[in-house]
């Protein structure tokens, strides 16, 4: 076993030995410093993110420390060839411990860059959003931010949601650099909103790289550990500082796609019972897109509840709020993420507004809204006992269903 293989495998297993919901990042970092995986001199910014500077560079490398999970709980790993999974009782956390693993390997080998480990990505890019608002810390100082946080094994993301985040020249050049090490990367304009997108107004080239995880946010999540090892090794050979810098961060370039804000319906918020009957009559079942969705659909919904769509009794109130446990910070308070703003939840649920729906769409909808994205929206952002949220969710289900045809 090579040094890289041993390091990547052992580090990834350690990082994913527990789930770490938002609010548990400090617990993880303390454990990593104690076992020597995190540098003892790593710093913490005023927003709770962790970072370390290695050498002189105009490059930021990013990943996030939190996991999509209801609780801080033990993960039981299952190994199937080069794929690492769980026993089906928890998510794996490869999103984004695969990215953290890659960055730790790069730090170990002194690749120059500012390494940022963000908190709260899964609940609305909390850490990166707050950091990006400290514009003076970043504007004019960095040419690129590379976030190691993307499913599959070959994407260099050029667009997140509706807008461009990096130039085609940058995407092509980065893919070419990685492919010198035997990988197969190419530009992908189907990205969804993640940490690096928070910096598009102040940093020219912002992208996400595939790190080899699949079916993120589900109990069927898996990680291609061979790909992660190859990527980690390839990142040592990339000429990061000489990648082209062409995108103008002061200009927003929107992508033309099948979905646009202009086509987004403004609802009157009345419950459309006729639409519910229509869907029941058609008997739709497959509301999402995955290459092998049918192979794990029943297992997935058995873990997380009913499949998306309408209840058999359309008059029943559906309350999924409790299915996503309260997001707790270290003080024990509970928050609802509203477009990057944390609203404290006390005795009542936080109602969603039209502007919140617009923000949700801008965060998640790229060229394809996945079933994983749909579930995050359902459990983190919506309260399906609300007619407004329920109607909006039905719209998303129909949108995903249209894409899968």
In words, what does this structure look like?
The structure is a single chain. This protein is of the alpha/beta class and 405 residues long. The protein folds into two domains: 3-242, Zn peptidases (Aminopeptidase, 3-Layer(aba) Sandwich); 261-403, no CATH class. The protein is 32% helix and 15% strand. It has a six-stranded mixed sheet with strand order 1-2-6-3-7-12. Strand 16 and strand 17 form a beta hairpin. The termini are far apart. The model is unreliable at 257-340 and 345-349 (pLDDT under 50).
Please summarize what this structure is:
Helix 1 crosses helix 6 (225-235) and helix 3 runs parallel beside helix 6. The chain is globular, with a radius of gyration of 21 Å. A hairpin with a 5-residue loop joins strand 1 and strand 2.
Number of helices: 11
Give the CA-based shape.
globular
What is the C-level CATH assignment of the largest domain?
Alpha Beta
The name of the CATH superfamily of the largest domain reads Zn peptidases
State the domain count. Answer: 2
Helix content: 25-40%
* Strand order in space, largest sheet: 1-2-6-3-7-12
What ranges have pLDDT less than 50 throughout 5 or more consecutive residues? Answer: 257-340, 345-349
CATH architecture of the largest domain: 3-Layer(aba) Sandwich
- The H-and-E topology, N to C, reads as HHEEEEEHEHEEEEHEEEEHHHEEEHHH
**Span of the ends, CA to CA:** 44 Å
CATH topology of the largest domain, what is it called? Aminopeptidase
* Major pleated sheet: 6 strands, mixed
Average pLDDT reading: 78
Structural class: alpha/beta
Number of strands: 17
What is the beta-strand fraction? 15-25%
């Amino acid at each position: 076993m090579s040094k890289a293989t041993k390091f990547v495998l052992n580090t990834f297993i350690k990082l994913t030995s527990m789930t770490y919901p938002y609010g548990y990042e400090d617990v993880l970092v303390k454990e990593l410093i104690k076992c020597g995986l995190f540098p003892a001199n790593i710093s913490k910014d005023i927003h709770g993110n962790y970072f370390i500077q290695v050498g002189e560079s105009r490059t930021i490398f990013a990943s996030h420390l939190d996991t999509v999970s209801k609780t801080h709980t033990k993960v039981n790993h299952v190994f199937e060839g080069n794929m690492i999974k769980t026993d089906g009782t928890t998510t794996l956390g490869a999103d984004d411990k695969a990215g953290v693993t890659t960055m730790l390997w790069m730090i170990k080998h002194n690749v120059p860059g500012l390494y940022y480990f963000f908190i709260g990505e899964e609940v609305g890019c909390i850490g990166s959003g707050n950091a990006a608002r400290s514009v003076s810390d970043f504007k004019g100082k960095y040419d690129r931010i590379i976030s190691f946080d993307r499913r599959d094994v070959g994407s260099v993301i050029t667009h997140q949601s509706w807008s461009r985040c990096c130039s085609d020249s940058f995407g092509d050049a980065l893919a070419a650099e990685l492919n010198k090490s035997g990988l197969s990367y190419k530009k992908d304009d189907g990205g969804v909103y993640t940490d690096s997108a928070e910096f598009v107004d102040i940093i020219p080239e912002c992208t996400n790289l595939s790190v080899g995880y699949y079916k993120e946010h589900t109990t069927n999540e898996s990680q291609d550990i061979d790909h992660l090892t190859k990527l980690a090794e390839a990142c040592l050979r990339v000429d990061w500082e000489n990648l082209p810098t062409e995108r103008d961060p002061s200009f927003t370039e929107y992508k033309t796609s099948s979905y646009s804000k202009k086509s987004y319906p403004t609802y009157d918020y009345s419950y459309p019972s006729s639409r519910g009957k229509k869907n029941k009559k058609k008997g739709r079942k497959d509301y999402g897109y995955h290459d092998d969705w049918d192979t794990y659909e029943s297992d997935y919904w058995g873990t997380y509840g009913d499949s998306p769509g309408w209840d058999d009794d359309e008059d029943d109130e559906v309350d999924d709020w409790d299915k996503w446990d309260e997001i707790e910070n270290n003080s024990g308070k509970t928050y609802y993420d509203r477009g990057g703003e944390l609203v404290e939840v006390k005795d009542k649920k936080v109602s969603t507004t039209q502007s919140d729906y617009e923000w949700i769409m801008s965060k998640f909808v790229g060229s394809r809204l996945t079933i994983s994205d749909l579930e995050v929206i359902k459990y983190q952002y919506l309260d399906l006992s609300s007619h407004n949220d329920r109607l909006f969710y039905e719209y998303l289900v129909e949108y995903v269903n249209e894409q899968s045809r």
